Amino acid sequence: MIEILKNSIFYFTDFILRSFKLFSLFSSGLPIYDIIETSLFRGIDMIETIYFGTYTRRLSQGIYQADFDTETGQLSNLKLFAAEPSPTYLAFDQENHLYTVGSKDGQGGIAAYQTDGTLLNHVVTEGAPHCYVAVDEKRGLVYGANYHKGQVLVYKRKEDGSLELTDLVQHSGHGPHENQASPHVHFTDLTPDQYLVTCDLGTDEVTTYDVNPEGKLNKLATYNCSPGAGARHLVFHNHYKIAYLICELNSTIEVLIYDGVGAFEKMQVISTLPDGFNDFNGTAAIRLSKDGKYLYASNRGHDSIVVYTVLADGSLELLEFVPTNGKTPRDFILSPDQEFLIAVHQDSDNATVFKRNLETGRLAELSNDFHVPEAVCITFAD
Which among 15, 16, 147, 236 is placed 20 to 30 Å from 193, CA to CA? Predict the structure, then answer.
Protein backbone atom coordinates (compact mmCIF):
# COMPACT_ATOMS: atom_id res chain seq x y z
CA MET A 1 0.00 0.00 0.00
CA ILE A 2 2.84 2.37 0.86
CA GLU A 3 4.56 1.53 -2.44
CA ILE A 4 1.36 2.29 -4.37
CA LEU A 5 1.08 5.60 -2.55
CA LYS A 6 4.69 6.48 -3.39
CA ASN A 7 4.12 5.69 -7.05
CA SER A 8 0.95 7.77 -7.09
CA ILE A 9 2.78 10.75 -5.59
CA PHE A 10 5.60 10.32 -8.12
CA TYR A 11 3.30 10.23 -11.14
CA PHE A 12 1.19 13.11 -9.82
CA THR A 13 4.32 15.23 -9.30
CA ASP A 14 5.58 14.30 -12.75
CA PHE A 15 2.21 15.30 -14.24
CA ILE A 16 2.35 18.69 -12.48
CA LEU A 17 5.93 19.33 -13.69
CA ARG A 18 5.07 18.39 -17.27
CA SER A 19 1.94 20.54 -17.21
CA PHE A 20 3.95 23.49 -15.91
CA LYS A 21 6.53 22.90 -18.64
CA LEU A 22 3.83 22.96 -21.33
CA PHE A 23 2.27 26.09 -19.84
CA SER A 24 5.70 27.78 -19.91
CA LEU A 25 6.17 26.83 -23.54
CA PHE A 26 2.76 28.16 -24.59
CA SER A 27 3.45 31.38 -22.65
CA SER A 28 6.87 31.82 -24.26
CA GLY A 29 5.69 33.28 -27.56
CA LEU A 30 7.26 30.44 -29.56
CA PRO A 31 5.51 29.43 -32.78
CA ILE A 32 3.07 26.56 -32.25
CA TYR A 33 5.12 24.16 -34.41
CA ASP A 34 8.17 24.73 -32.19
CA ILE A 35 6.06 23.99 -29.11
CA ILE A 36 4.68 20.80 -30.66
CA GLU A 37 8.14 19.66 -31.71
CA THR A 38 9.61 20.38 -28.29
CA SER A 39 6.81 18.81 -26.23
CA LEU A 40 5.80 15.84 -28.38
CA PHE A 41 8.43 14.80 -30.90
CA ARG A 42 11.52 15.57 -28.85
CA GLY A 43 9.96 14.77 -25.53
CA ILE A 44 9.50 17.22 -22.70
CA ASP A 45 12.28 15.78 -20.58
CA MET A 46 14.49 14.36 -23.31
CA ILE A 47 18.26 14.30 -23.04
CA GLU A 48 19.68 16.32 -25.94
CA THR A 49 23.13 15.71 -27.40
CA ILE A 50 25.29 18.81 -27.53
CA TYR A 51 28.52 19.20 -29.52
CA PHE A 52 31.65 21.25 -28.89
CA GLY A 53 34.22 22.53 -31.38
CA THR A 54 37.63 23.28 -29.89
CA TYR A 55 41.20 24.33 -30.36
CA THR A 56 43.69 21.49 -29.88
CA ARG A 57 46.59 23.58 -28.62
CA ARG A 58 46.69 22.36 -25.01
CA LEU A 59 44.28 19.66 -23.82
CA SER A 60 41.65 19.01 -26.48
CA GLN A 61 41.76 16.19 -29.01
CA GLY A 62 39.01 17.41 -31.34
CA ILE A 63 35.20 17.46 -31.43
CA TYR A 64 33.39 16.52 -28.22
CA GLN A 65 29.81 15.66 -27.36
CA ALA A 66 27.88 15.61 -24.09
CA ASP A 67 24.38 15.05 -22.72
CA PHE A 68 22.21 18.04 -21.86
CA ASP A 69 19.20 17.52 -19.59
CA THR A 70 16.45 19.85 -20.80
CA GLU A 71 14.64 19.59 -17.45
CA THR A 72 17.50 20.47 -15.11
CA GLY A 73 20.00 22.19 -17.41
CA GLN A 74 22.70 19.73 -16.35
CA LEU A 75 25.58 18.78 -18.65
CA SER A 76 27.13 15.32 -18.30
CA ASN A 77 29.02 12.50 -20.02
CA LEU A 78 31.58 14.41 -22.04
CA LYS A 79 33.27 12.21 -24.64
CA LEU A 80 35.33 12.58 -27.78
CA PHE A 81 33.21 12.49 -30.94
CA ALA A 82 36.01 12.75 -33.50
CA ALA A 83 39.74 13.45 -33.38
CA GLU A 84 40.39 16.48 -35.59
CA PRO A 85 43.03 19.25 -35.32
CA SER A 86 41.40 22.45 -34.00
CA PRO A 87 37.81 21.95 -35.26
CA THR A 88 36.80 25.48 -34.26
CA TYR A 89 33.36 25.64 -35.90
CA LEU A 90 30.63 23.04 -36.47
CA ALA A 91 27.51 22.78 -38.64
CA PHE A 92 25.05 19.90 -39.18
CA ASP A 93 22.90 19.24 -42.22
CA GLN A 94 19.40 17.76 -41.97
CA GLU A 95 20.78 14.24 -42.37
CA ASN A 96 23.09 14.91 -39.39
CA HIS A 97 26.31 14.95 -41.37
CA LEU A 98 28.72 17.16 -39.45
CA TYR A 99 30.87 19.74 -41.23
CA THR A 100 33.77 21.37 -39.45
CA VAL A 101 36.96 23.31 -39.82
CA GLY A 102 39.48 20.67 -40.89
CA SER A 103 43.20 19.98 -41.33
CA LYS A 104 45.16 17.13 -42.87
CA ASP A 105 48.89 16.63 -43.47
CA GLY A 106 49.66 20.22 -42.54
CA GLN A 107 47.08 21.68 -44.94
CA GLY A 108 43.86 23.44 -43.96
CA GLY A 109 40.25 23.58 -45.09
CA ILE A 110 37.08 21.68 -44.19
CA ALA A 111 36.12 18.18 -43.03
CA ALA A 112 32.92 16.11 -43.29
CA TYR A 113 31.83 13.46 -40.77
CA GLN A 114 29.03 10.92 -40.48
CA THR A 115 26.64 10.92 -37.52
CA ASP A 116 28.72 8.32 -35.69
CA GLY A 117 31.94 10.33 -35.99
CA THR A 118 33.33 8.46 -39.00
CA LEU A 119 35.33 10.71 -41.31
CA LEU A 120 33.87 11.16 -44.81
CA ASN A 121 36.58 13.36 -46.29
CA HIS A 122 38.82 16.41 -46.01
CA VAL A 123 39.04 19.13 -48.64
CA VAL A 124 42.26 21.00 -47.86
CA THR A 125 44.89 23.19 -49.51
CA GLU A 126 48.13 24.76 -48.38
CA GLY A 127 47.73 27.17 -45.49
CA ALA A 128 45.45 27.69 -42.50
CA PRO A 129 42.04 26.00 -42.10
CA HIS A 130 38.71 27.84 -42.17
CA CYS A 131 37.07 29.58 -39.20
CA TYR A 132 33.36 29.22 -40.07
CA VAL A 133 31.15 26.71 -41.90
CA ALA A 134 27.44 26.80 -42.80
CA VAL A 135 25.02 24.49 -44.62
CA ASP A 136 22.72 25.46 -47.51
CA GLU A 137 20.07 22.71 -47.55
CA LYS A 138 18.13 24.05 -50.53
CA ARG A 139 21.11 24.07 -52.88
CA GLY A 140 22.98 21.14 -51.34
CA LEU A 141 26.01 23.32 -50.56
CA VAL A 142 28.33 24.07 -47.66
CA TYR A 143 30.04 27.47 -47.24
CA GLY A 144 33.38 28.15 -45.60
CA ALA A 145 35.11 31.32 -44.38
CA ASN A 146 38.90 31.41 -44.24
CA TYR A 147 40.09 34.11 -41.85
CA HIS A 148 43.82 33.91 -42.54
CA LYS A 149 43.55 33.78 -46.33
CA GLY A 150 40.58 36.16 -46.67
CA GLN A 151 38.62 33.68 -48.77
CA VAL A 152 35.00 32.63 -49.30
CA LEU A 153 34.61 28.98 -50.33
CA VAL A 154 31.70 26.93 -51.65
CA TYR A 155 31.43 23.13 -51.54
CA LYS A 156 28.95 20.72 -53.13
CA ARG A 157 27.56 17.96 -50.92
CA LYS A 158 27.77 14.53 -52.53
CA GLU A 159 25.16 11.82 -51.89
CA ASP A 160 27.14 10.35 -49.00
CA GLY A 161 27.64 13.77 -47.38
CA SER A 162 31.25 14.25 -48.47
CA LEU A 163 32.33 17.53 -50.06
CA GLU A 164 33.98 18.86 -53.21
CA LEU A 165 35.04 22.45 -53.89
CA THR A 166 32.93 24.36 -56.43
CA ASP A 167 34.04 27.98 -56.05
CA LEU A 168 36.48 30.29 -54.24
CA VAL A 169 36.38 34.08 -53.98
CA GLN A 170 39.44 35.98 -52.78
CA HIS A 171 38.75 39.18 -50.81
CA SER A 172 41.19 42.11 -50.90
CA GLY A 173 41.80 45.26 -48.92
CA HIS A 174 42.56 46.24 -45.34
CA GLY A 175 41.32 48.43 -42.49
CA PRO A 176 42.74 51.04 -40.09
CA HIS A 177 43.08 48.72 -37.05
CA GLU A 178 46.37 46.94 -36.36
CA ASN A 179 44.56 43.59 -36.82
CA GLN A 180 43.32 44.62 -40.28
CA ALA A 181 46.46 44.41 -42.42
CA SER A 182 44.67 42.04 -44.81
CA PRO A 183 41.18 40.61 -45.44
CA HIS A 184 39.87 38.24 -42.76
CA VAL A 185 36.59 36.58 -43.78
CA HIS A 186 34.91 35.44 -40.55
CA PHE A 187 31.35 34.54 -41.53
CA THR A 188 29.61 32.94 -44.53
CA ASP A 189 25.89 32.20 -44.23
CA LEU A 190 22.51 32.83 -45.86
CA THR A 191 20.22 35.85 -45.83
CA PRO A 192 16.45 35.27 -45.39
CA ASP A 193 16.08 35.59 -49.18
CA GLN A 194 18.78 32.95 -49.75
CA TYR A 195 21.76 35.05 -50.81
CA LEU A 196 25.18 34.35 -49.34
CA VAL A 197 26.39 37.04 -46.96
CA THR A 198 29.94 37.35 -45.67
CA CYS A 199 31.55 39.37 -42.89
CA ASP A 200 35.16 40.46 -43.39
CA LEU A 201 36.81 41.49 -40.14
CA GLY A 202 39.89 42.76 -41.97
CA THR A 203 38.15 45.12 -44.41
CA ASP A 204 35.06 46.18 -42.41
CA GLU A 205 32.82 44.86 -45.20
CA VAL A 206 29.60 42.86 -45.33
CA THR A 207 29.33 41.44 -48.84
CA THR A 208 26.43 39.57 -50.44
CA TYR A 209 26.62 37.10 -53.31
CA ASP A 210 24.11 35.44 -55.59
CA VAL A 211 24.62 31.66 -55.66
CA ASN A 212 23.74 29.64 -58.76
CA PRO A 213 22.67 25.97 -58.63
CA GLU A 214 26.23 24.81 -59.38
CA GLY A 215 27.61 26.67 -56.38
CA LYS A 216 29.19 29.59 -58.24
CA LEU A 217 29.17 33.07 -56.66
CA ASN A 218 28.33 36.43 -58.20
CA LYS A 219 28.88 39.56 -56.08
CA LEU A 220 25.76 41.66 -55.46
CA ALA A 221 26.46 44.40 -52.92
CA THR A 222 28.81 45.54 -50.17
CA TYR A 223 27.97 47.30 -46.90
CA ASN A 224 30.79 49.14 -45.10
CA CYS A 225 30.59 49.14 -41.32
CA SER A 226 32.38 51.69 -39.13
CA PRO A 227 36.11 51.90 -39.96
CA GLY A 228 38.12 49.66 -37.65
CA ALA A 229 34.98 47.98 -36.26
CA GLY A 230 35.88 44.48 -37.46
CA ALA A 231 32.71 42.85 -38.81
CA ARG A 232 32.56 39.34 -37.27
CA HIS A 233 29.13 37.65 -37.33
CA LEU A 234 25.59 38.51 -38.43
CA VAL A 235 22.14 37.37 -37.35
CA PHE A 236 18.81 38.25 -38.95
CA HIS A 237 15.61 39.06 -37.10
CA ASN A 238 12.90 36.51 -37.71
CA HIS A 239 10.03 39.04 -38.05
CA TYR A 240 11.53 42.42 -39.00
CA LYS A 241 13.66 43.39 -41.98
CA ILE A 242 16.55 43.84 -39.58
CA ALA A 243 20.00 42.27 -39.16
CA TYR A 244 22.40 42.56 -36.22
CA LEU A 245 26.12 42.79 -37.03
CA ILE A 246 28.53 42.12 -34.18
CA CYS A 247 31.86 43.89 -34.55
CA GLU A 248 34.85 42.37 -32.78
CA LEU A 249 37.41 45.16 -32.73
CA ASN A 250 35.32 48.05 -31.34
CA SER A 251 32.85 45.98 -29.25
CA THR A 252 29.67 47.19 -30.91
CA ILE A 253 26.58 45.84 -32.59
CA GLU A 254 25.37 47.59 -35.72
CA VAL A 255 21.62 47.32 -36.28
CA LEU A 256 21.03 47.16 -40.03
CA ILE A 257 17.92 47.53 -42.15
CA TYR A 258 17.77 44.69 -44.66
CA ASP A 259 15.31 45.22 -47.51
CA GLY A 260 16.50 42.20 -49.47
CA VAL A 261 18.67 41.42 -52.50
CA GLY A 262 21.81 41.97 -50.46
CA ALA A 263 21.31 45.64 -49.49
CA PHE A 264 22.00 46.81 -45.90
CA GLU A 265 21.55 50.24 -44.32
CA LYS A 266 22.80 51.33 -40.89
CA MET A 267 20.08 52.10 -38.34
CA GLN A 268 21.80 52.03 -34.91
CA VAL A 269 25.16 51.36 -33.26
CA ILE A 270 25.21 50.15 -29.65
CA SER A 271 28.09 49.12 -27.38
CA THR A 272 28.45 45.62 -25.94
CA LEU A 273 30.29 46.99 -22.89
CA PRO A 274 29.30 48.89 -19.75
CA ASP A 275 30.30 52.54 -19.42
CA GLY A 276 33.75 52.93 -17.94
CA PHE A 277 35.17 49.57 -19.04
CA ASN A 278 38.49 50.36 -20.73
CA ASP A 279 40.36 47.06 -20.64
CA PHE A 280 40.84 44.80 -23.66
CA ASN A 281 37.71 43.25 -25.13
CA GLY A 282 36.79 41.43 -28.31
CA THR A 283 33.22 40.40 -29.06
CA ALA A 284 32.46 36.90 -30.30
CA ALA A 285 29.05 35.23 -30.71
CA ILE A 286 25.59 36.73 -31.27
CA ARG A 287 22.20 34.96 -30.94
CA LEU A 288 18.56 36.01 -31.21
CA SER A 289 15.77 34.35 -29.24
CA LYS A 290 13.22 32.46 -31.35
CA ASP A 291 10.46 34.89 -30.40
CA GLY A 292 12.61 37.78 -31.64
CA LYS A 293 12.30 39.69 -28.36
CA TYR A 294 15.87 39.42 -27.00
CA LEU A 295 19.37 39.54 -28.44
CA TYR A 296 22.44 38.06 -26.75
CA ALA A 297 26.16 38.63 -27.42
CA SER A 298 29.40 37.51 -25.78
CA ASN A 299 32.35 39.64 -24.66
CA ARG A 300 35.87 38.20 -24.43
CA GLY A 301 37.84 40.32 -21.97
CA HIS A 302 34.85 41.61 -20.05
CA ASP A 303 33.89 37.89 -20.03
CA SER A 304 30.16 38.41 -20.07
CA ILE A 305 26.93 37.93 -21.96
CA VAL A 306 25.24 41.20 -22.81
CA VAL A 307 21.45 41.05 -23.17
CA TYR A 308 19.33 43.48 -25.18
CA THR A 309 15.61 43.97 -25.53
CA VAL A 310 14.50 44.20 -29.16
CA LEU A 311 12.17 47.18 -29.51
CA ALA A 312 9.19 47.47 -31.84
CA ASP A 313 11.25 48.93 -34.70
CA GLY A 314 14.00 46.30 -34.32
CA SER A 315 16.43 48.59 -32.50
CA LEU A 316 18.14 47.50 -29.29
CA GLU A 317 17.92 48.58 -25.67
CA LEU A 318 20.40 47.34 -23.07
CA LEU A 319 18.85 44.95 -20.56
CA GLU A 320 21.76 43.50 -18.54
CA PHE A 321 25.35 42.26 -18.39
CA VAL A 322 25.82 38.76 -16.98
CA PRO A 323 29.28 37.42 -15.99
CA THR A 324 30.03 34.03 -17.55
CA ASN A 325 32.38 32.91 -14.75
CA GLY A 326 34.98 31.70 -17.20
CA LYS A 327 37.74 33.14 -19.36
CA THR A 328 37.11 34.04 -23.02
CA PRO A 329 33.49 33.04 -23.79
CA ARG A 330 33.92 32.60 -27.54
CA ASP A 331 30.58 30.91 -28.22
CA PHE A 332 27.21 30.20 -26.64
CA ILE A 333 23.85 28.81 -27.69
CA LEU A 334 20.20 28.87 -26.65
CA SER A 335 18.66 25.45 -26.00
CA PRO A 336 15.98 24.27 -28.49
CA ASP A 337 13.21 25.08 -25.99
CA GLN A 338 14.83 28.50 -25.34
CA GLU A 339 14.89 27.90 -21.56
CA PHE A 340 18.68 27.72 -21.20
CA LEU A 341 21.77 29.50 -22.48
CA ILE A 342 25.07 27.58 -22.47
CA ALA A 343 28.39 29.42 -22.89
CA VAL A 344 31.79 27.83 -23.48
CA HIS A 345 35.20 29.29 -22.68
CA GLN A 346 38.36 29.00 -24.72
CA ASP A 347 40.87 29.71 -21.94
CA SER A 348 39.28 28.33 -18.75
CA ASP A 349 37.98 25.02 -20.21
CA ASN A 350 34.50 25.23 -18.71
CA ALA A 351 30.89 25.55 -19.80
CA THR A 352 28.45 27.79 -17.95
CA VAL A 353 24.72 27.06 -17.98
CA PHE A 354 22.14 29.80 -17.42
CA LYS A 355 18.41 29.46 -16.88
CA ARG A 356 16.65 31.88 -19.21
CA ASN A 357 13.45 33.67 -18.24
CA LEU A 358 11.21 33.33 -21.30
CA GLU A 359 9.19 36.42 -20.40
CA THR A 360 11.94 38.87 -19.40
CA GLY A 361 14.92 37.46 -21.32
CA ARG A 362 17.11 37.66 -18.21
CA LEU A 363 19.67 35.02 -17.29
CA ALA A 364 20.34 33.26 -13.98
CA GLU A 365 23.43 31.08 -13.63
CA LEU A 366 22.88 27.41 -12.76
CA SER A 367 26.42 26.02 -13.03
CA ASN A 368 29.90 26.83 -14.33
CA ASP A 369 31.92 23.71 -13.52
CA PHE A 370 31.40 21.39 -16.50
CA HIS A 371 34.80 20.72 -18.06
CA VAL A 372 35.20 21.12 -21.84
CA PRO A 373 38.79 21.60 -23.06
CA GLU A 374 39.50 24.69 -25.20
CA ALA A 375 35.89 25.00 -26.38
CA VAL A 376 35.20 27.72 -28.95
CA CYS A 377 31.97 26.45 -30.56
CA ILE A 378 28.80 24.86 -29.20
CA THR A 379 25.80 23.51 -31.09
CA PHE A 380 22.93 21.06 -31.02
CA ALA A 381 22.41 18.76 -33.99
CA ASP A 382 19.73 20.30 -36.26
Answer: 147
